[in-house]
User: What shape does this take?
Amino acid sequence: MEKHVPLLQIKNITKVYNIGDNRLDILRGINLTVEEGEFVAIMGPSGSGKSTLMHILGLLDRPTDGVYEIYGENVLKFNDNQTAFLRSKIIGFVFQQYNLLNKMTAADNVALPMVYSGGKNRKEKSEQLLKEVGLSDRTEHKPTQLSGGQQQRVAIARSLVNDPKIIFADEPTGNLSSKQSNEIMQILTDLNKKGISVILVTHEPDIAKWADRLIMIKDGQVLSDTIQKKKERKNTEPLKIKKESSHLSIAEFAENFFSAIRAIISNKTRSILTMLGIIIGVASIISMLALGNGAQKALEQQITSMGTNLLYLMPGRISLGGVSGTVARRIYLKDVEALAENTELIKNIDPNVSGSAQVVYGNKNTYRKCVL
Ligand code: ADP
Assistant: This one.
């Protein structure tokens, strides 16, 4: 007989954060098995580690230690790319804040995960899913034109777009009225009936009641694990999990390219401001380089002209044993005039007198050199 393989299994999972010298033990050795088709609620006080656990189970985060198997495959051995690919293929997420893009329509928001996973017929599929969550008349609405409950329904439709095996819902009703909350829980229950496993994180007992199984956690440990409703388990064929990364075909690349163009067009002001920023930045760098080059060239020209045409004539000094001594012969103004008169080779002559002096005042003294 073939060995039974659960959907998810974690063994002795820990999560530790080190902040400065402080060690925070957020998850302290959690063991959990979730079967295909289960509807599990994870409850616990705020800060008990519910979201941390859900992020690890949802492959959004890695534990510090422990084992995590999906359909018997050790997924902690997967690299980031393979993990992202697996996540996009089998997991759907629903968050308290909906996490929808406000500039996109409901249909485009739903279709977005398919851009990353390379799904086909995005438009038809997103419209079909919006119909399933009761929003067929809201496909072209933007999130700001929808109520909180409707936005969460869009988020649920988005979580279904890659046909997940499991949905992770982190406080999905946290921002909703009780009527809207019940509608959302009904949708999740219906999806679970269709065979999708649901793991729900909540701190509200009324919401946790919808699940078949309730796991209580406190201080990063499982406090209790109880079955609330007995359900017959279907024996389904376990999925073969392979280490795969996403590859983009030319058609998918083209579709993604046009999606990006659509995103740029739907965020005109942001796109224009970003482009303006880049243009100003590049233009300033070019101008700075040009100015620098120009100044360098001018300086080089000046030095070159000086090097070939300029001649310094200085009175010599008597040097004795490597030590420069007194001036051997001075140059007087009449020498300058004689030089200027007697040769045609000199274009201009500019006499300079330089000297130095020491000024002493009390116990202070200073030495200055000057040219006239
Ligand atoms: P819950 O969902 O049960 O409210 P969380 O899993 O969000 O709890 O957080 C559990 C604890 O872990 C909290 O005390 C939180 O401050 C801490 N925590 C979460 N993320 C980080 C992080 N990135 N760095 C440090 N501490 C964190």
About this structure: Residues 316-371 form one domain.
